[in-house]
Amino acid sequence: MQDPRALIYLDNGATSFPKPPTVAAAMSHFLLEVGGSPGRSGHRLSQEAARVVFECREALARLFGAADSRRIIFTLNATQALNTAIYGLLKPGDRVLTTAMEHNSTMRPLRDLEHRGVISLEVLPCDRAGRLDLGRLQAALATRSKLLAAVHASNVSGAILPLREVGAMTRAAGTLLLVDAAQSAGALPIDVEADGIDLLAFTGHKALFGPQGTGGLWARTGVEPEPLVRGGTGSNSELEMQPEFWPDRLESGTQNAVGIAGLLAGVSFIAETGLPAIQTREEALTRRLIDGLEGVAGITLHGPERAAARSPIVSATFAGLVPSEAGFLLEEGFGVLTRVGLHCSPAAHHTLGTYPQGTVRFAPGFFTSDAQIDATIAACRYLAAKKAGGR
Amino acid sequence: MSAAAGAFAIATFHSTHMVLKAEKLLKQAGVGEVRLVPVPSQVSSDCGVTVRFAAADVARAAGLLRPLEDLQGIFVESGDGWTPYA
């Protein structure tokens, strides 16, 4: 395989790469020196593993402004967290709101419950950039609704949900707010208290810099999803019923402690670097990319305008080149790695008007260099010009 | 490891998470001889760990730990068993 350092990795929306070197070091240390099962046995290696899990929970609580870290449970990914929230909370007859920008990790569980006649679902429209129509949200909240499930930062357009405004609206309406922070956790400021969030689903392997197989769900005290999985927790072992207390209630089976060790290193990197510094850097890279692609004949950008708030995602289409072909040529000719197609978000592409072929998605990350962005711009311009001039 | 009777006290919690929280709290407060040990079988049939500390500091530790919601109990070593700390 080609040396990954020679490639231009612009697929951080799928998973961040590279990770801070401390992430691999922490995982290696765990496997070589710690190795115990967290919260199971009393011996020192088990205790050390449990400490890693505990410290990661505490670090995440600090990052999200959560007062009680017990309310954070670890999952495999954001999908499992969203499924836990959706299937664990919703009951027959519930009315649920969501947006026309959701990823299938939210949309499929909701459509499943709707299809089976458990819930009624209203999908709220968004504009062509992927921004939720707050007027329509306000109108929908006038009818009693159990839950609004909304994506914080779109994985397709980079549009950002005005969390605090939306949280104030759902709180006033007595509707629970479930936020899909798969793209935003670690990249954008999130404060579960100030933002009025009731449930926050996040993944570890994107902007939190952890490894794949890590993620979690935070839920406000009093919001108590039923567990999807029950089993051993290392606690209350004399009882054959699942414990009610957190985090054990929702964490059955041996946890991914080696992954969580890596996630702790990733979250620590964010704390040391400062989230604002990461956000500023990623915004600069995104703006640089937009500046280089905007107005180029044969290239169309989809999503919020240049100056608007957005997460580090730029979606583009090329005239006369389907996204899959454009992505292939960018990799083959220039070593630029993107993600093409529908990005598991058909609803979002309907909203943007890019369904069914989708877009080429460029997702720079904190470790992307200006030179890599400039090389990507040159590659895109070359492809667009070549297509315009015939092959 | 072996100590004279009455040398230690323990605090038990439902979850490992709270045991670790308590360990941190006690260490930060300078309570003596804080370490995690398996839950004594006389106290609970649980398979988890508990936080042990110097019995001399039990009053201060109780003040720190009682506000924590998930506290099950505080016990002081007595002979070959553990007596609830009132």
Query: Which class of secondary structure composition applies to the elements of chain A?
Result: alpha/beta
Strand content of chain B: 25-35%
Shape of chain B: globular
Mean pLDDT of chain A comes to 95
Mean pLDDT score of chain B: 88
| Low-pLDDT sequence parts of chain B | 1-5
Elements of chain A, N to C (H/E): EHHEHEHEHEHEEEHHEEHEEHEH
Adjacency order of strands in the biggest sheet of chain A: 2-8-7-6-5-3-4
Give the helix level of chain A as a range of percent: 25-40%
Low-confidence stretches of chain A: none
**Sheet of most strands of chain B:** 5 strands, antiparallel
Could you spell the SSE succession of chain B in H and E letters? EHEEHEE
End-to-end separation of chain A in angstroms reads: 29 Å
Largest interface: A-B, 25 and 18 residues
Walk me through what this model shows.
The complex is a heterodimer of chains A (391) and B (86). Chain A is of the alpha/beta class. Helices cover 39% and strands 14% of the residues of chain A. Chain A has a seven-stranded mixed β-sheet, sandwiched between helices. The radius of gyration of chain A is 21 Å and the shape is globular. With 86 residues, chain B is an alpha+beta fold. Chain B has helices at 16-28, 58-65; strands spanning 8-13, 35-38, 49-54, 71-78, 81-84. The interface between A and B is medium-sized, with 25 and 18 residues.
Layout of strands and helices, then pairs:
The complex is a heterodimer of chains A (391) and B (86).
Chain A: E1 8-9, H1 21-34, H2 44-64, E2 72-75, H3 78-89, E3 95-99, H4 104-115, E4 120-124, H5 134-141, E5 147-151, H6 163-173, E6 176-180, E7 199-203, E8 215-219, H7 257-273, H8 275-293, E9 299-302, E10 314-318, H9 323-334, E11 336-337, E12 339-341, H10 346-352, E13 359-362, H11 370-388
Helix pairs in contact in A: 1-7, 2-7, 3-4, 5-6, 8-11, 9-11
Chain B: E1 8-13, H1 16-28, E2 35-38, E3 49-54, H2 58-65, E4 71-78, E5 81-84
Antiparallel strand pairs in B: 1-3, 1-4, 2-3, 4-5
